[in-house]
Amino acid sequence: MSEFVIGGQSILPGESKKIALPVARLYTDAEVDLPVYIVRGKRPGPTVFISAAVHGDELNGIEIIRRLVNLKSFKVSRGTVIAVPMVNVYGVVNQSRYMPDRRDLNRSFPGSSKGSLAARVANTFLQQVVAHCDYGIDLHTGAIHRSNLPQIRADLNDEETRLLANVFAAPVILHSEVLDGSLREAAVEMKTKVLLYEAGEALRFDELSIRIGLKGIINILRHLGMIAKGKRSKSVRKPFVADHSGWVRASVSGIVSHKFDLGDSVEKGDVLAHIGSPYGEVLGSVVAANSGVIIGKQNIPLVQEGEAMYHIAYFQEDEDKVAEHIESVTEDFVGEQPLREVLL
């Protein structure tokens, strides 16, 4: 195996190392570093990056990586894992989705070494981390005041990416084209296969989302032959795949009374919520335009007309079967002992 260099530091086969990768300085002259943890196996194999907090207020991924690298039996025997728990360090410090220049880092790739602050961070991450990798897992949550059902988003037209999405075994897989300026777009252009894991809400730890994400990463690393298979466990439930999805928006402004929750199946014409005045009068209703399953939902009970409220995925299978599957997966994880004790 050849020498592996990140940020001017080399990591030999069988070594693990924590690196502070410089990205920029603040106007206080304080250095801002990207925390990077590299674990190399003794034998050749694929290289996988695991990234979190590209949006600085999306915290579940940070906890997923913290738990992963602290598993006592987490031993990489083949290949290399590069874990980056905070890509947007600025956003984490400020509890903000955005960079200090108000740019969205996940719309700033591939970036430039001479561009805006967001462009420079994007370029550093792409050249120092992604360029080494065959595969990547990018960890996200819903935006502020919105929750996402644990789900994998990926380009399912790519056969290997589709296989990996199934191996991850989140309750739902959503076919998703790459977005302009996203990390996933830039990585794919570098021939890196990427899964995007969406689960939970910004600025919150959600235990179910963390457990499913941690188990999914372990599933991928086992599938790639990078870590030991571990003890035989019960059979994995096969995820349901949605080819497309859409948002249902508020018909009027007001105070919301939700009738459905994440993971629920809905039929065309179902009233998802009532919107009322401060005096309790019903001003309007939010109605499902098609049958599907709710995979994203606004949490704050106040809406403006036209605001996105429910993200509904559409499946070829019966929606009730999908909802039952989601409930079963949730029960599996809620009933388990801490994953750090059972994964490996």
TrEMBL record:
UniProt cofactor(s): Zn(2+)
Keyword Cell cycle among record annotations: no
Protein name: Succinylglutamate desuccinylase
Lineage: Bacteria, Pseudomonadati, Pseudomonadota, Gammaproteobacteria, Alteromonadales
Keywords for this protein: Hydrolase, Metal-binding, Zinc
InterPro entries: AstE_AspA_cat, N-alpha-Ac-DABA-like, N-alpha-Ac-DABA_deacetylase
The Succinylglutamate desuccinylase/Aspartoacylase catalytic domain, residue ranges: 44-224
Species name: Thalassotalea mangrovi
A GO term for molecular function: hydrolase activity, acting on carbon-nitrogen (but not peptide) bonds, in linear amides
